[in-house]
Structure formats: structure tokens, C-alpha cells
Amino acid sequence: MRRPVIAVVVVLALGGAWIAYSELWSHGGGRPVAWRAVPGALGDAELSKPIFLRFRSRGELEAYLARVMPGRSPKLPPIDFAREEVLLAAVGARSSTGYSVRIASATEQRSRIVVRVREVAPSLGQPVKDRVTYPYLLATIPQSPKRVHFIWLGRP
User: Fold this and answer.
1) pTM above 0.90, yes or no
2) Which structural domain range is residue 63 located in?
3) H/E stretch holding 133
């Protein structure tokens, strides 16, 4: 009767150790990641759904754009995919030209890169045009084998 109890205790201890590792240690050790926005890179791209994606090659990005914007894929700016990878964040359709998407921070942790993304809404006095827009941000970060984790901060 003691062996099943010991086995349960060992399994619980191992489970607790794994949770502590994955949530505390592996997500610690943060340092800023250099990122570069590529303004207007996709022109008036119509990315109609909220997305937060990473692309490691030009072909991967081109294939995605061809799929979501058939026949209207924009020409990509020069990006050195040997050194950089692309992050694409979009919020979907908005009712005016005053909306934008920004990276609030990008941090490299021990096991991942965390990118915090924020939508910026127009202020009351800001002159905007009433038309449907699709705000997005295309940015580059240095190539990394670590996974990228996006955190959506919403609007301030």
C-alpha cells in the first residue's frame, strides 16, 4: 500500500519541479531585443483578421501574403533573412485612418522571445479620414532559434 503513495508523491514532486522550471526559470533572464519597424512595407495590405506571426524566410512570408491577399500580394522590401526574421502583427479592420500597431517591448528570455504589441487608437482631436483601414506592423528582429511569444496589450 505504501508504494502507490510514494509513486504519487514522486509524480507530484516531478510535476511541481517541471512547472517551476517552465514558468519561473525558463521565462526569466530577460534582456531587450533590437527590433526595427519596416514602415509601409506592405502598402495598403488588407489583413482582415488579427494576426501575430513570425516568418524566417522570404518564401514563407510571400506564401502567407499570397494566401491571405490572392492576386494582390505586395512587393516586399529588402530584408536580409540570413540575419533577420520578420514579425507581422495586424489587428483587422478599423473605421478610420488614425489607428496603428506598435511594439511596446521585445525581450529575450532564456527559452523564448516575448514581443508585447499595442494598438494605438486616434485621439479625439486627431484629424482622421473615415474609411476602412487594416493597421499592421512589419518589423524585423535578429534570427533566433527561440520561439516568439506575442502578448497583445490592446489599446492604452
Assistant:
1) no
2) 33-154
3) strand 130-133
